[in-house]
Amino acid sequence: MKTGPLPRERLAIHFALSRAFDHKGLQSQFISYSVVLAFKSFLAKMTPLMCEILRAWTSLEHSQWYEKPKLVKLRENKLSRIVEHAYRTVPFYRRLYEDLGVDPGKVKRLSDLAKLPLVTRKRLQEAGIEARTAIGTDLNACTMQSTSGTSGMRLHFYEDQTSGVWSDALNLRLLWAYGYRPFQRLCRTRVNDPCGRVPKPKISDVGLWGFVRRHGMKQILYNTEPAEAVLALADWRPDIIFGNPAYLRLLAKSAKTNGVKVKCKTIITAGQLLDNSTRDFIGKTFQAEVYDHYGLEEVGGSVAWECPTHYGYHVNDECLILEFLRDGRTVASGEEGEIYITSLTRTVAPIIRYATGDIGVPLDHDCKCGRGLSLLKNIQGRIMDYVITQDGKWVPSISIISAIEEIQGIEQYKVLQNEDRTIQVLVMISNGMESQVFGEARQVCLDLFGDTPVRILKVDRVEHASGTKFRIVESALTKSPVE
């Protein structure tokens, strides 16, 4: 039985790699040909899965430079196919569209998406995983995945090989844009399982591709003590660190406090809002360029990534359609809107007009880097990241984080809002700084929350719940509308 790609597949990869490295004629034919030759012996040993990932990646490397009309045409072709597929094979969507009298065959253009109903996480969960899965799917060839559950509602779904391929290809594209190359080391911070179980590997974690990922990447769990994690980073010396900005800030503080030097080339943040003070602090501490990333597991992983020019976030248009709505209507460029996503690559568990619960600002500008991908900015994070004051004002966590980070003497902190709207601010305070911290914290809370009752509590340690994302601001009131 053959384990490597067929000769025809190898030629396709050779051609695709040439396109990726010479997409706009900026590289010489000699350089492109040399790159292909360097991969020659490696390609002969690759599994078909890895060939698929590289083929998808090289396609993305090429298409990101398309002009906008060409990208729109590409997306519209995929949109009509995925909507028709969902109606024909997925019981949930067939029932939903028939009950509302919607004709999926009339969805041909991006603007036609408005004809379809919006879908919430609660509605998907209530439907059950069987009703949301395409009929005829070989479940033995799929893996069961789930969202993090930070909204209080974990959503389970199946992922097949095709979805896994596109997810890896999208991650590889953003890494490549940031200067990553296969010989470099990458460290990720991630959620630990509350029961201590080892997560079931994704489809793309097996075989040769899995070997490459395992030996070029290490993981640090969020419940790891910051001092221990920092020593591990100093010992392994990764080129790229990928993680939650709040946790990375803790690591940076620990490194500075204990005099441990950790230097890397690139830091990629994800999973929470990245404020400017955190960006500057972790960038200077680790002597790295910091980029932010926005992703959701249920829609295929990577959604948008900060451009290397830091001009905005590039949406992965080839795989997703993002809508920005306020009161059900599309907002104008530069205005805030709730983000709804349609996946163009998930066929086993389609996602169409899905309410993410996140808020962002679309841009219709052209990016300085020359990519034709859509742009967005100011990702405000989940609506559940907001604190609601007594007078009904919504205070975003990024405002809270930015204000508290300015207080000298706070080592760690967490903001909790109870159902009665009262707020607790838990703080770890440096020796001799208690009086100053309490005084400044009271004023900051007054400025942020007005007359809302606030208790500031000194603690020896800020606990992190096992099995959840690392969060600084949590509110029992602001349940996201995705629920």
Detail the topology: elements first, then pairings:
Blueprint: H1 7-21, H2 29-43, H3 48-63, H4 68-89, H5 91-99, H6 121-127, E1 143-146, E2 156-159, H7 161-177, E3 186-190, H8 207-216, E4 217-221, H9 226-236, E5 240-243, H10 245-258, E6 266-269, H11 276-286, E7 289-296, E8 301-306, E9 313-315, E10 320-326, E11 329-330, E12 337-343, E13 354-363, E14 375-382, E15 387-388, E16 394-395, H12 397-404, E17 410-417, E18 423-429, H13 434-449, E19 454-458, E20 473-475
Parallel strand pairs: 3-4, 3-5, 5-6, 6-7, 17-20, 18-19
Antiparallel strand pairs: 1-2, 7-8, 8-9, 9-14, 10-11, 10-12, 12-13, 13-14, 15-16, 17-18
Helix pairs in contact: 1-2, 1-3, 3-7, 4-5, 9-10, 10-11
SS summary, helix count: 13
List unreliable stretches of 5+ residues: 1-6, 19-32, 193-201
The average pLDDT value, as a whole number, equals 82
Question: Which term fits the overall shape?
Answer: globular
Q: What CATH first level of the largest domain would be assigned?
A: Alpha Beta
Quote the distance from N terminus to C terminus: 48 Å
